[in-house]
Amino acid sequence: MNQEDDATIIHYPKGALLTVTLSDQSKFLVSFQTSPNSSALQWLTPPQTFNKTLPFVYTQCQAIHARSIFPCQDTPAARITYSAKINIPRVLSAVMSARHVERRVPTAGEAGAACDDSMWCAEDRIVEDFVMEQPIPPYLFAFAVGEISHREVGPRTRVYAESVPSVLDSAAREFAGTEDMIRQGEKLFGPYDWERFDLLVLPRSFPYGGMENPRMVFLTPTVIKGDATGAQVVAHELAHSWTGNLITNKNNEHFWLNEGFTTYAERRIVEVVQGEDRAALNIGIGWKGLNDEMERFKDNMEFTKLKTNQEGVDPDDVYSQVPYEKGFQFLWRIERQIGRPAFDEFVKKYITTFKFQSIDTETFLDFLKANVPDIEKEINLELWTEGTGIPPDALAPESKLYTKITSLAHEFIHGRMPRDDEVAEWGGQEWELYLEFLPKSVEASQVSALDARYRLAESKDYEVKVAFLQLAISSGCRDYYGEVEKTLKEVGRMKYLRPLYTYLVQGPGKEEEKILAKRVFAETRACYHPIAQGVVEAILSKHL
């Protein structure tokens, strides 16, 4: 059938409604063209890649950007299966969140209305075929094309990246323990249903730490830290294989069902694979982040709830740690109430019951009350899911290492810097926690002295570097503004862009800092993913 004759398109603020009238047809074909300005796609020129020789393109569809690539019901409530033919230059390779079928020569006539055969079948073109046979929400549709190679790191895992040996080798070392994490995940949550768990390290512009695309997790290169702690991000994306990909929130008002469960699962995996102290540090960093979000949303406490009202709201504008950390705290509270063995059985039953479904908070609570009798008498479920702020029965982590680090941070305001012997065994996470708990504004001389002793501004761990640079900005320590500019220009991860730009422009005065922020963004905007561009533009428009 002809789309022009039998379909109408009505445009709405949330997208365009395509209505198709069928007579005796059982299927129809929609021909479409994606805009070069698609918010889900970033087209990188050779200078923006690691290799500097060939272009690169990748997708980021979460939360509501799949609609900018192909016509779909862009909601997690609608699951899809798909097959794809990606026609690319022969010198490049494609990966996808789907099973790779073959790499082959193009065939005349298969392009349909996409392009003519002379372009599709040109000598320098190749086709990569993929198929996703398991139903997934549209935001998990993903692909990347570039000069891509891989390393084997386990029976179910390859690490992909641009064909730069140093990047590939360092990623393979960082994620060498992935199979151990998969096995631990299976012990906790049941069989891994996606066959492969491959990892793609993207160029520096990738706006997130990781994206849990099934079969092909996307990662920022900033998680490669050289000490295997970057594998905690992999643990998080792996946990999504059960909570998020198998069971999905029905819409973004219930995002905690994805991220709260996954944060809980991540920490259970880390606890076994890397130890209880490491898991406690992870919880501690999250606890501090959750408290910081309460300050961020103090004028709009709706977004401190687990179940939020997002009518007319772009999910990217209210993205925060709340669904992750408050969601984790809620599940941890249930675990403490009924005991870990009982909670483990509950989680396995939950996953088995709702796999390949999209659910809401009410569905979860009904299932909880049906399987844990009288739980509503022990825990205020309504307060946890619909109340603002942090409930009184939330809990900071308990460990000697966590207590020692936070105590040292509190002593800093009185001028006491940690001794060399106290930090001799610290890695990136210890320093990150220490810096997060320092007062937000101290004397510039104290900041300089701390860095002179421990070289934090030069850290290869961006969590440490950015936490230190936030301290430097808030303390008016202008000696580090050059490092701030360098950092903003070399990474596109929103976890770092959001606080650095905010610290530069938020608050009275700060004329020099505001000029710096505007100039750096103007010079770097094209290097950021469209989602990150929008986030930074919102920060600048609010404060300038």
UniProtKB/TrEMBL annotation:
Signal peptide: none annotated. Residues 400-540 form the Peptidase M1 leukotriene A4 hydrolase/aminopeptidase C-terminal domain. The active site is at E237, Y324. One of its GO terms (molecular function) is epoxide hydrolase activity. Belongs to the peptidase M1 family. It is found in: Cytoplasm. SUPFAM superfamilies: ARM repeat, Leukotriene A4 hydrolase N-terminal domain, Metalloproteases ('zincins'), catalytic domain. One of its GO terms (cellular component) is cytosol. PANTHER family: LEUKOTRIENE A-4 HYDROLASE. Zn(2+) binds at H236, H240, E259. InterPro entries: Aminopeptidase_N-like_N (IPR045357), Aminopeptidase_N-like_N_sf (IPR042097), ARM-type_fold (IPR016024), LTA4H_cat (IPR049980), M1_LTA-4_hydro/amino_C_sf (IPR038502), M1_LTA4H (IPR034015), Peptidase_M1 (IPR001930), Peptidase_M1_C (IPR015211). Keywords: Cytoplasm, Hydrolase, Metal-binding, Metalloprotease, Protease, Zinc. Aminopeptidase that preferentially cleaves di- and tripeptides. Also has low epoxide hydrolase activity (in vitro). Can hydrolyze the epoxide leukotriene LTA(4) but it forms preferentially 5,6-dihydroxy-7,9,11,14-eicosatetraenoic acid rather than the cytokine leukotriene B(4) as the product compared to the homologous mammalian enzyme (in vitro). Its EC number is 3.3.2.10. Its cofactor is Zn(2+). Binds 1 zinc ion per subunit. A peptide binds at Q60, C61, Q62, P207, Y208, G209, G210, M211, E212, R493, M494, K495. Its main location: cytoplasm. It is an enzyme of class 3 (hydrolase). This is Leucine aminopeptidase. It comes from Chenopodium quinoa. It catalyses: an epoxide + H2O = an ethanediol. GO terms for biological process: proteolysis.
